[in-house]
Design goal:
Layout: H1 3-34, H2 38-41, E1 47-50, E2 58-67, E3 71-81, E4 83-88, E5 91-96, E6 103-106, E7 114-123, E8 130-139, E9 144-148, E10 154-156, E11 174-175, E12 177-181, H3 195-201, E13 217-218
Parallel strand pairs: 6-13
Antiparallel strand pairs: 1-12, 2-7, 2-10, 3-6, 3-8, 4-5, 4-7, 8-9, 10-11
């Protein structure tokens, strides 16, 4: 065997070994991440939002998103001042009537493959007005999808037609006005609603699954 052939064989072996090591390292990191408590894995912080008219007594909001793959678990959290109802694919799944608390619902059965719609109707009885929501999807492959309230949501002071549907044309609705991210200093709700309370709502897990307190989960009616 010539020297050039020996060097070429050694080089190919080294490249193959490094590639295998990189794959094993990546798998180890993914497994470690997936076994972390769900609350600590949340990367997207929702924002308190409202209409550009801060005095609006009621608003309607919506956000569409795509889902690809199999959903293992799905939970929705929200809070509002003063109250709001949330709908997933036109079905009411959650009501929040106390801005100092986090409302939580198991919505795995309402998620469908393809295009989905998350919407809300919110009401304010005077004073500061705001609503936030965060939808977390845990996929069967261990990945997480996070849908959080922000400026990309569409809002209107009037609801019409099938506004809760994923097929609804909301092009003439306004972009949501962001009042501030959850827990931001100076917000009237930040003493009770923080990133820590949000993470705690999802509980902890050693298997990379949601384990929220059952007493906090809103039951979505069957049918």
């Amino acid at each position: 065997m010539t020297r050039e052939l020996v060097f070429s064989s050694l080089r190919a072996f080294t490249i193959a070994s490094l590639s295998l090591f990189a794959v094993l390292l990546d798998d180890t990191r993914n497994a470690r991440c997936q076994n972390q408590p769900i609350g600590t894995r949340i990367k997207t912080v929702p924002s308190w939002i409202w209409a550009s008219d801060s005095e609006a007594p009621s608003i309607f909001g919506r956000k569409t998103f795509e889902v690809e793959g199999d959903v293992k678990q799905a939970f929705l959290v929200a809070s509002a001042d003063n109250e709001c109802d949330l709908f997933l694919n036109e079905r009411k799944v959650l009501t929040s009537k106390e801005w100092g608390e986090v409302a939580l619902a198991d919505v795995q059965k309402q998620i469908r493959s393809g295009k989905n719609s998350l919407s809300f109707s919110a009401r304010n009885e005077g004073g500061p007005a705001g609503v936030y929501a965060l939808l977390i999807l845990l996929m069967k492959d261990g990945q997480m999808l996070e849908i959080a309230s922000d400026s990309t949501w569409k809002l209107s002071k009037q609801a019409r037609g099938d506004w809760k549907s994923s097929r609804f044309n909301d092009s003439d609705w306004e972009d949501a006005k962001v009042i501030g991210v959850l827990g931001a200093p100076g917000l009237p709700w930040s003493q009770s609603n923080t990133r820590e309370t949000l993470a705690a709502a999802f509980g902890s897990s050693q298997q990379g699954e949601f384990t929220p307190e059952l007493a906090t989960i809103a039951k979505v009616p069957e049918g």
